[in-house]
Structures are given as structure tokens and as C-alpha cells.
């Protein structure tokens, strides 16, 4: 009996163990099915935090429903409460769904939180409406950035290249309405791509972040099953990457509080940055957070006493952010470098070598031409010796300016070439950290070799935006004169003078409602025109076109943040609205006029006519010549002003507020209607103002987005304005913190053949751009087929930059002033061509390799024919002389590569630079023909 009882006890124990094992197995199966680790479910503590903000409030129901379906426990973080790294919480994984605006403080805090081991999952156009510095930092944190949205659904599929093992699962691919994610060159992988042309990335992942290229949690973007599969898989990946003992560890220093519903977090009230528009209702958010609505009619509050306007403190968050932003190439990172990245690194280094050599060639050729002393270097390049007849005197290099240990140019170039050559081998050996270190060292060394004490610039447009803040701080004609003196000494020849800003004029106007209250007792525009012309500079009035106010400007004036500006306050019927009835779109700071309103158009035309007739301005630049940013695929659209709605309904029989992007034909008509409002206004400005001022230069500051995306998002079709001849100059805002990115932004537009005879110069943003980096970007501009640049803005024009510019492009005392391409295109073309000839002559004289005498003779003869034709055209422009010059240029260009066959082998970069400069001359001739109305009979 005892034996029997013992056996029964033993059998019962085995059954209990088996039952426990079966239950545990079932739990593991279920948890694996959910793709959440057992350790996550076993603990009651959430491992995920989800960010709730004003921009995803109306999507919160879909987001929370999906999270509930997954079964993962999570904390809710109110974006409005994030002021430091601790505010991102102490959970291991952070999910940032569809948040387009982060403040600099929040972005810096996010970087701090991730540096402590936090892992980030983001979806949608994260940060795309943030300041440039924020976008730059987010790009490094996310491993890429949002490029543009698709108008229709596209298929997500696995990349054909090697993908991370954790993304090789079913359920991750299907039809989605999203956008292209542009991966960084270094450390990013694209496991999922779009089944469209070139297969752009749909998902980008790094060791510490994953970026999903669609708005997670919205039924219009993707199915819940696909959303859930990606989030589960990604959370699982970041937790399994940790040792088991660390999976429940929290982020050191993070806040331990954990709100589990929206109702438990403070309501989103806005302010600057993420909640820039105050009082917006968060619809469908769950939890019942109540937000007040802004008034639909504008009223002007009584201003409080004006504060003293001071320059921004260097301690502000935006400055901290810009200082923190660095290149993606981290010196000590040993993350793998794939073939594409290796090629990019090698190419960028070779391009920088070319820019350094190109700058030195310009200096040496000019010095040899006038018999000046030149560089101590024995060689221009590996193939060219300096002439023995020219005295040697050190050219000051950037390295000596910076106070660093100087090496010769030849040594730096030789080292850089060797590093570029050896990069593939280091990468093949998986010595990634050393490859990065050597690449950065070579780049720094090359930067220090730029010649910074010799004039090397040819006639070009050298423009700067002179901003309202700088004008206000000048305070008087004497203060403004000091600014113009600095700019003139630095060789600046064109000033875009901020004349209309946030609805205020900088001058006392008979048309506008109010002069800027920060200007007292003087007329800056009147004085600026005199100061510019006394210094042989052009003064172009820079005006905000359809942007009618500015919340940030309201802060300076101590006005209510919702004050729409003086014009809309007086004429609320002129306002434009988004599809939810808001004058200011979410995440933005400016109300806009309705371009379809004839009273708005008449007011602006009358204002601009006053500017160009009462003041002797040389040009007018239209800024904000567009609608505010939208994203139709996210249900964020704009343009529903009273006049626009009435006109569109009269045309189609449909009120545009009742249509959506899914109604393809109607939506296209609505997009075309809005785009045509902007197009027709530009044409109207051009026609009407040129009747009053025939010599007026009309320019536009524009966004460098792809054309189709730009029309969908801001209804700005500047290629059309260029082709029609409505504008003389296009200035795309190609702002970047390093030269390679600047080149990727600017080069497609510089190379465009869709601009007719209109000139284009790229914009360069000076904020947080090191002096030598700015010089590098200028050298790139001079090596591309373009006739100048524009700097944003005078506020950031430092003393170091002013000194460098004075040396390299500043004015030389002479009896004649240098031509400006916008005014004297034929004279500019002739002088630039003469500089090209000097460089060719210098190369031929100092190349030790034998050349067939007949070949040199043929080259010189053809070059001389072209020089003569250009000089005759410049001296006395006529249609017949233009015809001869064009024919000579075309013939010379067709033979140029044959004539330069030896140089192509030794320095292909320089030959391409020369070809680009010939294209610049070609464009100047085309512009001059239209400008001077020279047509062959």
C-alpha cells in the first residue's frame, strides 16, 4: 500500500511537471506568435513608451487600437512635457509615431536618451516640419530622413540585397500608402523597399533605431496586420539583442512615471516647436483631452511695451543643437561599411581633392598672368610644375589661419590620394573604424590647403539676404552703413533686403497697414538703396508674398501668439485655412493669404508697385510664394479660403472641402487650381511691375523639392515661371551643413534644362556652418555650371567669413567695377572666358609631357576665335554678334574633350570643371538674349 501511494505520488508529480511544461510551452508559443519576448510578458512593467502629441492626436484611436491588439504594455509620453533626456522615460524602447515637429530641446534630449542605450522606433515624416538643425540631428539618430510621399499606395517588398535576419519574416510586406526614406551613407540598412522605380527604401534600420516610411496606426496608410507585424518584430529585435539579464533594465536617469492612457497625461497645449499652433483640438484621441479652438476671425490685440531686441544667446537650444550636429562619419565607429557607402566615401574624397586643386589653379593662373608672386608649392598638381620665372612667395593656406600644424599642399594631396586609394582595402579587411578615421583626417587636411589670401573668384552673383533682425539691430543709417561696408569689402554685390515681413513693411507705407513697430524714426529701405548704390551694389526688396504673419514675430512684439498680422487682422476674409478650419497649420507658425482672392492680389500688387516706383530698388524677390506645407496622404491639406472655395465650386460644382485625395480626378483638379493661383500671380507681378520698371530683376526664393512632390505639398511650380520668362533668377534654398549634402541638393537643379533662359544660384545657409566648410561649398559652386550663390543670412556673416571673403573675392582697387551677371551677362561671359584661357595657358606652359604642336595650335586658334566673338559681343551687343558668339561656343564645346584628351587622363575633375564653366557662359548668353531682347532678324 505504501509502495502504491509512493507510485501514485510520483505519477502525480510527473503529471504536474508535464502540465507546467505544457502551459509554459503554450505561453512561449503564444508569446512568440505575438513576437513579444516572454520576459516582457512575465514582467508587469512596460518596456515600451509611446509618444503622444498634437500632430498624432487625431490618429490616436487607430494607434491605441493597434497597440491593444498587439497586447504589449506601454507608457504614454506627452511630447509637450519633454524638456530633457529624462522626460523620454526609463523604458528601453521609444515609439515616435507620426510626429513631424520636434523642438531643438526635444531633439537634443532624444540624442541624450539614446546615448544611454535607448532604442527608437519612428514612423511617418518624423521631424520634417522641424528646423533644419533638428532635421539634421534626427537624420543621424534615425539613420535617414523622410524624402517625399507617394500619391498612391505602393507595394512594400523585401530588399534584394542582404537584409537583417530579424526582418526576414512573413507579414511584413504588402500594400501601403507612404513615402520614401532616404538612408544615410553610413551605418544604415534598408530591409524593405518600395516596388517602384529605383526601389527606394520603405524602412531604414540601424543598430539603435528603425524608421518606418508610412504613418503607423492610420487606416488610410496601411492595414493593421502589417503595422502590428512591423512593430512586434522591431520591439522583439531590440529586446533580443540584449543579454537576458539586461532586457528588463531601464534607461539610467529616465523618468520612472508611466501614464498608461492619454487621459492620464497633460493635454497638449502647444507653444513653440511641437505645439507651435496653440489651442488645436485633438480629435479622436481617446481619453477626452479637451483643447480650445482658435478664433476663425482675426482681431488685433493691443501691443504691450516693446522689448529691446538682442541677438540670440549662444546658449539657446537651437545653437546647442547646431553645434551638436556632425557628419555621419563617426571617427571611432566600427559599424560595417557596404559597397555603396565605400564608393561614396571614396568619391567625396576625390571630389575634395579636385576642389582644392581647382582653387589653387585659379590663384596660380591669375598670379602668373599679372606677374605676381605665387605659392611656395613646387607643383600645381602631380603633373604640373610652376614656372621658374615667377618668384616664389608663400600663399597663406587655411591651415595657417586656423593655427594648426601646416603641411605642404603637395603632401596633403598625396596623403589624401593614398587614403582614397586604400579605402576599399581597409573596408574589405573590415577595418571600418580606421577607414573612417583616415577619411576624416584626409578631409581635415585638405580643407586646410585652400588658398585663403588670394583673389580666385570670377564675376558672379554674390548675394546675401539682409534679414529684418539685422536691420532692426542696425538702428540707424550709420549702423546700416557699417553692415554695407562689411558686405562690400567682402565682395558681395547683391543684397536681398527684407522689406515685407509678417505683414509689416520695413518702411512707412501708404499701402500697408503698419510699418514694423521695431523700426522707429527712420526709413531703412530708403537708406539701404542709397548705401548699396554708393558701393556699386544691387539692392533687391525681399518680400513675404502669401505668408501674412508669424507667431515668432508676435513673441518679439509681445503680442498674442494667434495674432495673424496687421493685414489679416483688418481683412479676415483674406485668410486661408486648412481642411479643419485652422488658419495656421499644425506644427507651423504662419497664417497665409488666399492667393485666389482678387482683393489679396490687388493689395500685394499695389504694395510691390509702391516699392519699385517710390524707391530705386534694382529688383524684387518673392519669398513664401507658395501655400504652406501639406501632406494629402495624412489628411493635412490647405487652401480653403472663402474665395478659393467659391471659385472652385463654380468651376466644378463641388466644394473642395468635401473632396479627398482618394477622389483622384477631382483632387488633381483641386491641386491644379491652387497651383495656377500661384503661377498666375507670379506672371501678373512680372508683367505689371516691368511696365513700371523695365529694368527690374525679379527673383524667387524656392524649395528644392522634386517637382511633383512640390506641387502636391506647397503648390510651387517654379520651373513654369522660369520657362515662361516671368522671373530672372531662381534661388533654391539648398541648405546643408556639409558640402557633399549641399552638392546632392543643389546639383540636380543646377544641371536642370527646364529653366529656359532664367539663371539659378543655390542658397547656402551660414548658421552653424564652419567658415572653411562655407568656403568649400563656394568652391563647389564655382566648379559647377552656375553663375553665383546667395548666403542666408547677414545675421550669421561672421568676422572670420568676412575676412576670408575679402581676401578671395573682395574688391580690387581699379577704375572699373566688376560686372554683375544679372546686369551685364555678356561682359561677365567674356571675363569668365578670359580667366579660363589663363588656366589653360598655365597648364600647357607647365606640363612637362610632350604635346603635338599642331594640336596645341588648333586648340589656341579655336579658343582665340571664341574669345574674339565674346569680346565683340560684350563691347557692343547685337543679335548678329550674339549669333556668332553662340556658334563659336558650340563649335568649341564639341571639340573640347578631344583637345583635352591628355588632361582627362591626369585630372578628369578639372576638365569637367572647365566644361561646366563653358556651360555657364552658354547660359549667360541665353539669359542676355532674353534680357536685352536680342533676336536675330
Q: Describe it for me?
A:
With 937 residues, this protein is α/β, with parallel strands linked by helices. The chain is built from 29 helices and 21 strands. Strands 12, 13, 14, 15, 16, 17, 18, 19, 20 and 21 form a 10-stranded mixed β-sheet that branches. A 9-stranded mixed β-sheet has the order 2-1-3-4-11-10-9-6-7, with helices on one face. A hairpin with a 6-residue loop joins strand 9 (189-194) and strand 10. Helix 25 runs antiparallel to helix 26 and helix 25 packs antiparallel against helix 29 (908-931).
What attributes does this structure have?
937 residues; alpha/beta; ten-stranded mixed beta sheet; 11% strand; globular
Q: Short summary of the structure?
A:
With 937 residues, the protein is of the alpha/beta class. 49% of the residues are buried.
Helix content: 40-55%
Q: Judging from the principal axes of the Cα atoms, what is the shape?
A: globular
Beta fraction: 5-15%
The chain-level mean pLDDT equals: 83
Number of helix segments? 29
Quaternary assembly: single chain
What are the SSEs and their pairings?
Layout: H1 2-34, H2 38-42, E1 48-52, H3 60-70, E2 74-78, E3 93-97, H4 104-115, E4 119-123, H5 132-142, E5 144-149, E6 154-158, E7 175-176, E8 179-183, E9 189-194, E10 201-205, E11 209-212, H6 224-240, H7 317-324, H8 339-370, H9 398-401, H10 409-428, H11 432-447, E12 461-466, H12 468-474, H13 477-489, E13 494-501, E14 504-505, H14 524-534, E15 538-544, H15 551-556, H16 566-570, H17 598-614, E16 619-623, H18 642-652, H19 664-692, E17 697-702, H20 707-714, H21 718-724, E18 729-732, H22 739-750, E19 759-760, E20 763-765, H23 771-783, E21 788-792, H24 799-809, H25 825-846, H26 853-875, H27 879-899, H28 901-906, H29 908-931
Parallel strand pairs: 1-2, 1-3, 3-4, 4-11, 12-13, 12-21, 13-15, 15-16, 16-17, 17-18, 18-19, 20-21
Antiparallel strand pairs: 5-8, 6-7, 6-9, 9-10, 10-11, 13-14
Helix pairs in contact: 3-6, 4-5, 4-7, 8-10, 8-11, 8-23, 8-25, 10-11, 13-14, 17-19, 25-26, 25-29, 26-27, 27-29
Amino acid at each position: 500500500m505504501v509502495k502504491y501511494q509512493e507510485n501514485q505520488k510520483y505519477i502525480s508529480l510527473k503529471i504536474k511537471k508535464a502540465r507546467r511544461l505544457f502551459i509554459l510551452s503554450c505561453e512561449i508559443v503564444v508569446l512568440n506568435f505575438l513576437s513579444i519576448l516572454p520576459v516582457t510578458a512575465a514582467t508587469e512593467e512596460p518596456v515600451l513608451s509611446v509618444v503622444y502629441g498634437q500632430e498624432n492626436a487625431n490618429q490616436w484611436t487607430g494607434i491605441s487600437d493597434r497597440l491593444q491588439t498587439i497586447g504589449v504594455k506601454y507608457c504614454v509620453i506627452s511630447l509637450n512635457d519633454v524638456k530633457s533626456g529624462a522626460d523620454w522615460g526609463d523604458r528601453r524602447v521609444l515609439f515616435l509615431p507620426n510626429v513631424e515637429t520636434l523642438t531643438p530641446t526635444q531633439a537634443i534630449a532624444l540624442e541624450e536618451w539614446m546615448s544611454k542605450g535607448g532604442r527608437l522606433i519612428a514612423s511617418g515624416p518624423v521631424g520634417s516640419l522641424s528646423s533644419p538643425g533638428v532635421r539634421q540631428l534626427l537624420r543621424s539618430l534615425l539613420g535617414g530622413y523622410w524624402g517625399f510621399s507617394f500619391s498612391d499606395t505602393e507595394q512594400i517588398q523585401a530588399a534584394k540585397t542582404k537584409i537583417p535576419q530579424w526582418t526576414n519574416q512573413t507579414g511584413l510586406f504588402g500594400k501601403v500608402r507612404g513615402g520614401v526614406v532616404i538612408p544615410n551613407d553610413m551605418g544604415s540598412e534598408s530591409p524593405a523597399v518600395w516596388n517602384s522605380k529605383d526601389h527606394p527604401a520603405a524602412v531604414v534600420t540601424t543598430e539603435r533605431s528603425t524608421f518606418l516610411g508610412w504613418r503607423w496606426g492610420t487606416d488610410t496608410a496601411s492595414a493593421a496586420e502589417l503595422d502590428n507585424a512591423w512593430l512586434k518584430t522591431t520591439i522583439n529585435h531590440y529586446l533580443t539583442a540584449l543579454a537576458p539579464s539586461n532586457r528588463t533594465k531601464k534607461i539610467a536617469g529616465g523618468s520612472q512615471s508611466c501614464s498608461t492612457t492619454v487621459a492620464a497625461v497633460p493635454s497638449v497645449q502647444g507653444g513653440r516647436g511641437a505645439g507651435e499652433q496653440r489651442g488645436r483640438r485633438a480629435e479622436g484621441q481617446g481619453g477626452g483631452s479637451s483643447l480650445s479652438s482658435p478664433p476663425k476671425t482675426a482681431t488685433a490685440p493691443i501691443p504691450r511695451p516693446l522689448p529691446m531686441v538682442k541677438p540670440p544667446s549662444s546658449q539657446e537650444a537651437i545653437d546647442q543643437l547646431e553645434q551638436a550636429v556632425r557628419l555621419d562619419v563617426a571617427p571611432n565607429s566600427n559599424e560595417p561599411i557596404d559597397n555603396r557607402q565605400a564608393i561614396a566615401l571614396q568619391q567625396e574624397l576625390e571630389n575634395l581633392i579636385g576642389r582644392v586643386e581647382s582653387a589653387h589653379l585659379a590663384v596660380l593662373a591669375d598670379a602668373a598672368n599679372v606677374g605676381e608672386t605665387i605659392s611656395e608649392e613646387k607643383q600645381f598638381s602631380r603633373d604640373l610644375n610652376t614656372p621658374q620665372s615667377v618668384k616664389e612667395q608663400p600663399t597663406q593656406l587655411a591651415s595657417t589661419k586656423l593655427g594648426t600644424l601646416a603641411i605642404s599642399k603637395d603632401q596633403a594631396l598625396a596623403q589624401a590620394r593614398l587614403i582614397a586609394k586604400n579605402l576599399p582595402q581597409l573596408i574589405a579587411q573590415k577595418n571600418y573604424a580606421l577607414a573612417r578615421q583616415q577619411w576624416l583626417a584626409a578631409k581635415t587636411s585638405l580643407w586646410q590647403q585652400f588658398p585663403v589670401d588670394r583673389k580666385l573668384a570670377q564675376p558672379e552673383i554674390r548675394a546675401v539676404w539682409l534679414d529684418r533682425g539685422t536691420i532692426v539691430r542696425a538702428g540707424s543709417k550709420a549702423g546700416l552703413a557699417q553692415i554695407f561696408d562689411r558686405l562690400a569689402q567682402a565682395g558681395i554685390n547683391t543684397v536681398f533686403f527684407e522689406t515685407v515681413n509678417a505683414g509689416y513693411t520695413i518702411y512707412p507705407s501708404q499701402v500697408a497697414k503698419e510699418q514694423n513697430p521695431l523700426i522707429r524714426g527712420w526709413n531703412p529701405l530708403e537708406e539701404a538703396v542709397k548705401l548699396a548704390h554708393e558701393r556699386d551694389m544691387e539692392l533687391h526688396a525681399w518680400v513675404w508674398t502669401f505668408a501674412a504673419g508669424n507667431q515668432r514675430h508676435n513673441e518679439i512684439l509681445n503680442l498674442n501668439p494667434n495674432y495673424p498680422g496687421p493685414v489679416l487682422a483688418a481683412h479676415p476674409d483674406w485668410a486661408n485655412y486648412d481642411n479643419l478650419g485652422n488658419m495656421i497649420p499644425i506644427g507651423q507658425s504662419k497664417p497665409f493669404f488666399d492667393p485666389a482672392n482678387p482683393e489679396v492680389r490687388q493689395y500685394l500688387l499695389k504694395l510691390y508697385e509702391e516699392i519699385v516706383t517710390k524707391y530705386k530698388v534694382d529688383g524684387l524677390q518673392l519669398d513664401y510664394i507658395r501655400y504652406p506645407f501639406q501632406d494629402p496622404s495624412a489628411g493635412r491639406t490647405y487652401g480653403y479660403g472663402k474665395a478659393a472655395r467659391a471659385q472652385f465650386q463654380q468651376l466644378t460644382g463641388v466644394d473642395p472641402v468635401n473632396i479627398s485625395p482618394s477622389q483622384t480626378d477631382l483632387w488633381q483638379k483641386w491641386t491644379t487650381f491652387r497651383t495656377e493661383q500661384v503661377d498666375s500671380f507670379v506672371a501678373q507681378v512680372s508683367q505689371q511691375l516691368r511696365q513700371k520698371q523695365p529694368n527690374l530683376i525679379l527673383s524667387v526664393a524656392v524649395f528644392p523639392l522634386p517637382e511633383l512632390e512640390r506641387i502636391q505639398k506647397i503648390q510651387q511650380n517654379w520651373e513654369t515661371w522660369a520657362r515662361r520668362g516671368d522671373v530672372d533668377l531662381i534661388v533654391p534654398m539648398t541648405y546643408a551643413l556639409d558640402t557633399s549634402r549641399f552638392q546632392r541638393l543643389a546639383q540636380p537643379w543646377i544641371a536642370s534644362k527646364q529653366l529656359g533662359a532664367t539663371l539659378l544660384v543655390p542658397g547656402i545657409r551660414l548658421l552653424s556652418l564652419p567658415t572653411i566648410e562655407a568656403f568649400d561649398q563656394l568652391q563647389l559652386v564655382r566648379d559647377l555650371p552656375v553663375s553665383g550663390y546667395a548666403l542666408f543670412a547677414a545675421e550669421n556673416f561672421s568676422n572670420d567669413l568676412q575676412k576670408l571673403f575679402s581676401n578671395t573675392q573682395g574688391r580690387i582697387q581699379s577704375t572699373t567695377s566688376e560686372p554683375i551677371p544679372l546686369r551685364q551677362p555678356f561682359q561677365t561671359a567674356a571675363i569668365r572666358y578670359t580667366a579660363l584661357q589663363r588656366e589653360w595657358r598655365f597648364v600647357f606652359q607647365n606640363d612637362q609631357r610632350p604635346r603635338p604642336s599642331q594640336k596645341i595650335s588648333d586648340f589656341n586658334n579655336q579658343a582665340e576665335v571664341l574669345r574674339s566673338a565674346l569680346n565683340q559681343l560684350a563691347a557692343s551687343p547685337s543679335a548678329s554678334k550674339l549669333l556668332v558668339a553662340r556658334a563659336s561656343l558650340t563649335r568649341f564645346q564639341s571639340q573640347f574633350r578631344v583637345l583635352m584628351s591628355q588632361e582627362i587622363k591626369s585630372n578628369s575633375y578639372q576638365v569637367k570643371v572647365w566644361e561646366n564653366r563653358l556651360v555657364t557662359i552658354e547660359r549667360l548668353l541665353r539669359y542676355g538674349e532674353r534680357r536685352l531682347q536680342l533676336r536675330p532678324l
